[in-house]
Structures are given as structure tokens and as C-alpha cells.
Amino acid sequence: MKTLLTFCLGLLSAARSLPSAAARSTANGTRFSIDGLTKYYAGTNSYWIGFLTNDADVNTVLDNINKSGLKILRVWGFNDVNNNPSGVYFQRLSASGSTINTGANGLQRLDAVVKAAERVGVKLIINFVNFWDDYGGMKAYVTAFGGSKETWYTNAKAQEQYRKYIAAVIGRYAKSDAIFAWELANEPRCKGCNTDVIFKWASETSAYVRYLDPSHMITLGDEGFGVPGDSTYPYGTSEGVDFVKNLKIKDLDFGTFHLYPDSWGVPNSFGPGWIKAHADACKAAGKPCFFEEYGTPSNHCQNQVSWQKASRDRYTDGMGGDAFWQWGDRLSSGQSPNDGNTLYYGSADATCLITDHVRAINALS
Ligand SMILES: *[C@@H]1O[C@H](CO)[C@@H](O)[C@H](O)[C@H]1NC(C)=O
Ligand SMILES: *[C@@H]1O[C@H](CO)[C@@H](O)[C@H](O)[C@H]1NC(C)=O
User: Fold this and answer.
1) Closest by alpha carbon to 180, among 115, 119, 117?
2) Is the CB of 316 inside a 6 Å radius of any atom of ligand 1?
3) Catalytic residues
4) Best of 62, 67, 119 to mutate for ligand 2, by most ligand atoms within 8 A of CB?
5) Is 66 in the pocket of ligand 2 (CB under 6 A)?
6) Closest of 133, 218, 224, 109 to residue 174, by C-alpha
7) Which alpha helices (DSSP H) does the chain contain, by range?
8) Which residue lies with its CA nearest to atom 1 of ligand 1?
């Protein structure tokens, strides 16, 4: 067991290598530098792109994202199942032996996304697990290894397999210039827990990721709960997340936060204050904030233009960039998934929230 572990660690360090310095994505104070250019960056999200089975569709989406002037794409780097998988999946979790699927219906689908991103020069945020049950998530680990989503962070068997999965993904793309950042989880929460639980897990996991790949940025992927400024639910720490405390973690290079007033039971006018609260915290920590997901189920332009402006206005003062939720496009099978928040390429929504936003960013000095 010990011999095998030492052997595996040896292979991992032998595989480590640095992308060329000029092509790296880095933090530069509270801003991001990509390919040597420090500015405010706009991006988007696509949870589904790594699960497409048609390379032409993957290429169409990356071409359209690039043509739109968006530079960062956040994708799901996980797809966990427990048994009898059908279709695309990345990892099968079981107490009697888990497997990582590197086959044609496995991580080779994510390979296609990385390859297309490399071709067009778009940079990827790739995360390793979902807090939510979609595509398996922590629930799939709980099904295999017991406990609950609240004890997932400290469950030795779950964490051992999660780290194996992280090593498998990083091993494939550590040399790629298309990686913007590794992300520990999508929207990690630990309801009712002391905020030390996520703080400790994020500290240890980010140190492990840095050991595997010292040349790419690392971030948490949280919603940004736990920040001073207001007494409403998202500002509090009831979900076990303390944004300000987590910004202090050495191996986390930037902060993330999300914005869904509709799901959080606050008005849309909540947005600009929420953005300011995070920009203030990031400025104090000397790290960029990335406004990583935001959406409304309707009236997209009317509701979100003021959020984008509030974020851009802080471009030298805490905010490094943003990524709306989520990208929509026409695929060979028809329209990509529409969850109500989707902004489709070529639509009127895309004009005001992508074209106009990118133009306003380009006008910033
Ligand atoms: C950091 O940004 C400043 C301008 O704000 C620039 O002069 C400098 O070259 C940047 N450094 C890197 C490493 O990109
Ligand atoms: C990416 O977009 C830019 C700006 O529109 C364009 O000049 C470039 O040719 C595009 N790259 C590819 C590979 O299509």
C-alpha cells in the first residue's frame, strides 16, 4: 500500500511541468493576467459541454464564445455515478472499488473541451465535485462511502477517492495553457457546520492541488456567503461558508461568488451591494474576485445590466472579471439546455449582456 502510494506520487511529480510563462493565467494584484495582458475579463458557464458526444458541437460552442469576446469558460469537470452507468460519466463510486473512466465516454469528452479551448484561446475553470446532486456530486460519494454531505468534507474514504479523481484530471491537463484555474467544488456548503470545516478542507485540498500543479491558479467555487455588509441570509454563515476567512487560504488565488436573488429570496436590487461587499473583501485580501455565476429566470437584460456595471466599475478595485450563467447555443441535437437563465448566442439577450458588456470592458483603460 505504502509502496504503491510512493510510486504513484513519484509518477505525479515526474509528470509536473510548467506551461510557458507568457501563456499563463495568473492573478496580478486584484486583477487577472492572461497571456501577459492584465485587464477585466468576461466569461460564461457551460455545465453540459463536457458531456457532449459530438466534437463538432464542442468546437461550435468554443468558436462562438471566442467570437463573442468572452475569455473564460467554466465547465463541470465531474460526472459521478454509482452503478450501471449509461452515456457519458467520469467516475463510478463504490465502496468495493471506484473507477475513473478514461474511455471514449469518459474523460476523453473533457479532453475535447480542453483541445477546443486551446485552439481558440479561451481559458477554462474546471471543478472537481458538485455540492448539488446533479451529475452525482457529494451525494454519490455519500452513497458509496456513507455519512452525509455535511460529513463528506471529513470522510476519509470519500476524501481519498476525491483526491484520486483530482489527480486524474490534473494529470491530463497540467501542461495545458487552456487552464485558467482548478476549482475545488461547485457551490460547496455545509449547512449548520462551523465554518472551520470548509476552511480546513479547502486549505488542505488547495495545498494538494498546488503540489500536483504549481503553475495554475486554484479557487474554491463557493457562492460567496459570509461577508460583512447586510443582515440578509446570503451575507451570513449559516451554510458553513465564510468568504472573508476563506480568502486568507494561501493556495486559493482568487475569490468566487455567485448571485441568484430569486433562489435566495432577495430582490434583484440586492445585486450591486452584494458585488461591492465582495470587491471590498477581495481588495482587503489583495486577491481578485471573480463574479463567477449570476442569473435571473426572466427579464435577463433588465435585471442583470446593473450587476455587470457594478462589477466593471470595480475593475481596478477588487473585481477581476465575471461569468454569467449560462451559455446557450444551437447544437446538432437542437438548442442547448434552457434552465431559464440561459443567454443564447445571437439572441437579443446576448446583445445587451454579452456584446455591450464586452464593448464596455474594452473601453476601460
Ligand atoms: C500586472 O499589472 C500591471 C499593470 O496593472 C502590469 O504593468 C504588469 O506587467 C502586470 N504583471 C504581470 C505579471 O502581468
Ligand atoms: C477568436 O476570436 C478573435 C476575435 O474575434 C478572432 O480574431 C480569432 O480569429 C478567433 N480565433 C479563432 C481560432 O477562431
Assistant:
1) 117
2) no
3) 187, 293
4) 67
5) yes
6) 218
7) 2-15, 55-67, 107-120, 137-145, 156-173, 196-212, 243-246, 261-264, 271-285, 300-312, 348-350, 356-362
8) 28
Does the CB atom of residue 358 touch ligand 2 within 6 A? no
Question: Mean pLDDT by 10-residue block, N- to C-terminus, for the chain (365 residues)?
Answer: 38 46 82 96 98 98 98 98 92 97 98 98 98 98 98 98 98 97 98 98 98 97 97 97 98 98 94 98 98 97 97 97 98 97 98 98 90
Q: Which residues contact 113 (CB under 8 A, 6 or more apart)?
A: 49, 50, 58, 62, 75, 124
C-alpha cell at 215: 503553475
- Distance of CA 24 from the midpoint of ligand 1 (Å): 13
State whether the beta carbon of 355 lies less than 6 angstroms from ligand 2: no
pTM for this model (two decimals): 0.94
What structural domains does the chain harbor?
24-364 (3.20.20.80)
